Amino acid sequence: MGKSIPDHGDITPVLNSLEGAQERLAEAVAEQLDAVDRLLVVGGGHEATYGSHCGLRRHVGDQVVGVINIDAHFDLRDPYATGGNSGTAFSQIHADTPTGQWQYLVLGLAAESNSDALFDRASQIGAEWVSDVALQTGLSATVQDQIDQFVAASEVVHLSIDLDVLPRDQAPGVSAPAERGVPMPVVEALIDHIVDAARHCPGGLRLVDIVELNPTFDSKQMTARSAAVLASQVLGA
Q1: What is the CATH number for 161?
Q2: Residue 62 lies in a domain
Q3: Is residue 158 a known part of a binding site?
Q4: What are the binding positions for Mn(2+) in this chain (predicted)?
Q5: I need a surface site. Which of 103, 127, 185, 210 has the fewest CB within 10 A?
């Protein structure tokens, strides 16, 4: 029989306040992490990740959080120039977090979708990344070792999965559909490897986001189906 997964409800912005919705999400995540081993947040734009991470931080205190973002983009834009949005979550996390209490790894990065300034910003904060080109045929030993070393240096793991990392035919209902993307079987292999590696760090994999699903643009519910496959994998592991 399948596993029963409780649904803890929705967070809806009030008066179009993104910051208010992120704060309510943070409160909900912090509360639920007191009761569950692993929590899944489904969005919505990638701005949800900032709210969910704030909740995780409240729960784990000053532990080192390793954030792994399976994504075509760094999402390190300047929130002070544009305001918080789907491209600023990890800059906001960096700004909030004392030095040494978080680290950042992006898997599936599309070089053509990130500016030179974003690559410079990623280097400045000590981020690591693996390109989508390097993940076309599977997980090399080099990539596996990089993930293992990253997780080993963390006390808790936060996994964020942006559906725009998938090829357009598997995830059309996102804000920036990918022409190349990372094939679904490779994304599944990444998740399996991350879940397994996180078993060896003290706090384990506590929080997962699956984001950037927009039903309005989701042809034949393909993106929703892809998200469901990945959610099942994360929660069943």
Answers
A1: 3.40.800.10
A2: yes
A3: no
A4: 46, 71, 73, 75, 162, 164
A5: 185
